[in-house]
């Protein structure tokens, strides 16, 4: 593993052993060669006419880390990009610098020319509409056609601009402009949100168990508190945030003890009145061997438009919110939230507040027929499911203040009951 060789006489005076420390080599005592003189430190040359600062010259040389920090090498960049919303807005920027890709520049110029031509055409139709409104003999049908053409041109004049598309995608849409309302509605209808809602509603037989038909016209998003932590000691110490709920999922009764936060994206600019209803479709009816509906929440005369605030402000509640309480021994319960359009957009309806006894057995079809509510003409809907747990017992005790019912299947008749009651081992 090691190789040895004979060392000549010229190297006999060198130190044979070297420790861990780096030592300065010393000449051998028997050698006649004097040690070389130490090298002189060279002073930096200073050009004539250059002014030196004595303070800076006396400072020691800065380490490489400080110079790297000044150059930006040691700078810490944020690992997560900040969110884009109305509180932190941003402007659209070109993804490619001007002149870097001529094809992109040509396409962008073409889109701008097309948008300008549409805007010019829009101004012409607006002047025609003003003249038509001032003309008493103008046909009303032609007037409606002009208004429809103007609404189409308002969308076409800006729909292809990259900045408009980017703002609509990143939550910076200006709902006062028709183009943003159109883009958001198309996104809701075509990118799966409406399809998922209607799929769950029809799979869970909300239609036709509750109402014959349903055709939502705007987006309703429901937020409930997140599930409690598994560690019981942390449940009273952890502040739970509200989170968006997917239609048709299972929620815990603990999550729904408080009213939900309702967010809407409405696409019509004019205000319309809606009635809010929250129903349980699966309350047992032992007398009739079927199920009945329970009214959990109701609020008529809610005004909504494209400019409404979210979540929906409900300063006064018509019928107080009762938390969902699926009974013990029953299968899962379906809970449905409806925003049903009222017959008049401006006239409010007068609905008496139901008592606690009238909540059970609430007939939605009779109620909708009485007040001319039609969910097939628009509105919004949402649904989720729940099953019994220990929280339901607390709701019966603290909120409803009644004895908790327990349901189950009837016991099977025992064919050997007489034999079991007879005495054994006796004559």
Pick out its properties.
single chain; five-stranded mixed β-sheet; alpha+beta; 12 helices; 427 residues; three-stranded antiparallel β-sheet
Any overview of this molecule?
With 427 residues, the chain is of the alpha+beta class. Helices cover 30% and strands 15% of the residues. The protein has 12 helices and 8 strands. It has helices at 54-58, 64-71, 102-134, 140-156, 162-169, 178-190, 193-203, 206-209, 356-359, 364-370, 390-400, 417-421, and strands spanning 219-225, 242-244, 250-251, 261-265, 272-285, 290-304, 333-341, 380-386. The strands form 2 sheets. Strands 3-8-7-5-6 form a 5-stranded mixed β-sheet, with helices on one face. A 3-stranded antiparallel β-sheet has the order 2-1-4. Strand 5 (272-285) and strand 6 form a beta hairpin. Helix 4 packs across helix 6. The longest helix has 33 residues, at 102-134.
What percent of residues are in strands? 5-15%
For the terminal residues, how far apart are their CA atoms? 102 Å
**Spans with pLDDT under 50 lasting ≥5 residues?**
10-15, 17-29, 49-59
Can you write the helix and strand succession as a string?
HHHHHHHHEEEEEEEHHEHH
Summed up, the helix count is 12
Number of strands: 8
Give the overall form. Answer: flat
Structural class: alpha+beta
Please describe the biggest sheet, giving its number of strands, its sense, and whether it closes into a barrel: 5 strands, mixed
């Amino acid at each position: 593993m090691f190789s040895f060789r004979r060392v000549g006489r010229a190297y006999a005076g060198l130190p044979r052993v070297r420790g861990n420390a780096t030592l300065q080599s010393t000449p051998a005592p028997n050698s006649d060669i004097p040690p070389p003189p130490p090298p002189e430190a060279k002073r930096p040359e200073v050009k004539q006419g250059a002014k030196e600062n004595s303070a800076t010259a006396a400072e020691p040389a800065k380490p490489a880390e400080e110079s790297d920090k000044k150059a930006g090498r040691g700078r810490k960049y944020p690992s997560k990009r900040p969110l884009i919303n109305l509180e932190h807005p941003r402007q659209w920027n070109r993804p490619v610098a001007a002149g870097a890709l001529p094809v992109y520049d040509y396409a962008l110029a073409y889109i701008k020319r097309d948008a300008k031509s549409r805007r010019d055409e829009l101004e012409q139709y607006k002047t025609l509409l003003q003249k038509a409104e001032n003309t008493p003999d103008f046909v009303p049908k032609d007037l409606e056609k002009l208004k429809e053409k103007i609404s189409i041109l308002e969308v076409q004049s800006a729909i292809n601009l990259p900045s408009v598309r980017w703002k609509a995608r990143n939550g910076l849409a200006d709902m006062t402009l028709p183009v943003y309302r159109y883009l958001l509605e198309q996104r809701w209808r075509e990118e799966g949100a409406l399809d998922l809602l209607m799929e769950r509603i029809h799979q869970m037989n909300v239609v036709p168990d509750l109402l014959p038909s349903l055709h939502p016209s705007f987006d309703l998003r429901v937020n409930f508190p997140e599930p409690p932590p598994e560690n019981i000691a942390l449940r009273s110490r952890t502040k739970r945030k509200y989170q968006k709920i997917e239609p048709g999922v299972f929620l815990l009764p603990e999550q729904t003890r408080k009213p939900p936060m309702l967010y809407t994206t409405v696409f019509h600019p004019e205000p319309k009145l809606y009635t809010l209803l929250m129903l349980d479709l699966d309350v047992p009816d032992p007398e009739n061997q079927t199920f009945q509906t329970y009214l959990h929440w109701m609020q008529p005369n809610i005004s909504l438009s494209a400019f409404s605030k979210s979540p929906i402000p409900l300063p006064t509640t018509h019928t107080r919110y009762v938390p969902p309480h699926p009974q013990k021994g029953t299968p899962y319960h379906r809970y449905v939230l409806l925003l049903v359009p009222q017959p008049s957009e401006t006239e409010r309806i007068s609905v008496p507040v139901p008592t606690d006894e009238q909540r059970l057995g609430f007939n939605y079809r009779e109620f909708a027929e009485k007040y001319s509510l039609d969910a097939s003409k628009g509105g919004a809907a949402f649904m989720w499911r729940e099953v019994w747990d220990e929280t339901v017992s607390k709701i019966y005790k603290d909120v409803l203040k009644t004895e908790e019912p327990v349901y189950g299947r009837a016991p099977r008749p025992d064919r050997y009951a007489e034999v079991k009651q007879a005495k054994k081992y006796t004559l």
